[in-house]
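Dear colleagues,

For the upcoming journal club I promised to circulate an example of a predicted protein-ligand complex. I picked one with pyridoxal-5'-phosphate because it came up in last month's discussion. The inputs are reproduced below in full, followed by the predicted structure.
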Amino acid sequence: MHDYNELKTLFRDVPKPFSFIDLDEIDRNIDHVLDHSQDKKIRIATKSIRNISVLKYLKSMLAHNYNGLMTFHIEESLYLLDNGFEHCLMGYPQKISKDQALRLKTFSKNNKKIVLMIDSIEQLQQLESLGEEIDFNFDICIDIDLSLKLPGLVFGVLRSPLRELGAFEKLFNYIKNSKRLKLNGIMGYEAQIAGVTDYSQKGFLFDCIISWLKRVSTKKIYSLRENVVNLAKSYFGELEFINGGGSGSLEMSCADKSIDEITVGSGFYCSHLFDKYKNPFSPSCFYAVEVSRKNQDNVFTLHGGGYIASGSCDLLKHPEIYLPNSLVPSKNEMFGEVQSPVISKEKIKLELGDPVFLRHAKAGELMERFNKVYIIKEMKIIDTWSTYRGDGQCIL
Ligand SMILES: Cc1ncc(COP(=O)(O)O)c(C=O)c1O
């Protein structure tokens, strides 16, 4: 953990609000990923980074363990290819236009690739006819539904409809008979392990139930992923990649022999949701707002700060105060769009204009709030790096 006064001194001339990344902590998280990834390659989830310089830094530090990007939009993927990246796996299906497909075709002449995510025959038909129209062969990846279905409960996400081997056979037959489609990979994302925290605010019993559901789910995940991969290999031979996992399932996913790469994004910044897993990462990405009013001796109002994360609306999605750590948000108002009252549990001296440092619940979303982030190393500001937003990219 940083020291409040050191951070305050370091950023004394920087106008608030601002965000910053501590590269020493990012390095610690890279080591953490490499220590746990065994023989798996790493694919970086761009939605959780949203900053080209950070992506380049991660790519260079992961070196031969790096295996491309997992992107979230075709325009974003094209923008990344244009900025020096070579291999994007679109993590989410999207209908692409003729213009986008033509731009992709141009990049493919320089061996740059976007692998498109697929989960239905309808998507295959659309790509096949687009391929015929522009004389281009598409690289594709199939998404497996790894959720656990119990009576009255879906433990997982509602994304891909593909969960029976028969459904995969239909898709494989279609692809095998197509001149325009090539199956490059299979993805199975175990959202109920990677995206569900081990420690919640709902109490010990709830956490025990989640832990039990995760254990039950793991067996099913390993066996379905293995069966689908074996079936795919019986049709197409070795594929380019088999992808699984996320920051929250590092160990469980890396123990699966049927995948050869794991996706990691959020773990590098370690937004505060990622403290709530066994074996956590180190926080490396923060933002600061200033004290703008003193309401009482121990009650202050911050100027802004209410960056709430997406997903189901609960308290976990609010920011967390990092420093000074005696501060808590006011329960009535929480974090507001322009004002956020905070209360100190102990006597504290804060002047108007002093910074308060916070952490976002989700990693990439913070980058949509700032044009640039300050980069610190060994407690010195060494650079500022433009975010997607700073590059003028408003994607999703
Ligand atoms: C398809 C897919 N893979 C992997 C991940 C993991 O990303 P992260 O490491 O940023 O949590 C996600 C996150 O939602 C995802 O949707």
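Two points we might discuss: Residues 204-236 form the longest helix (33 residues). Residues 45, 48, 70, 91, 189, 194-195, 246-248, 263-267, 363 surround pyridoxal-5'-phosphate (CB under 6 Å).

See you all on Thursday,
B. R.
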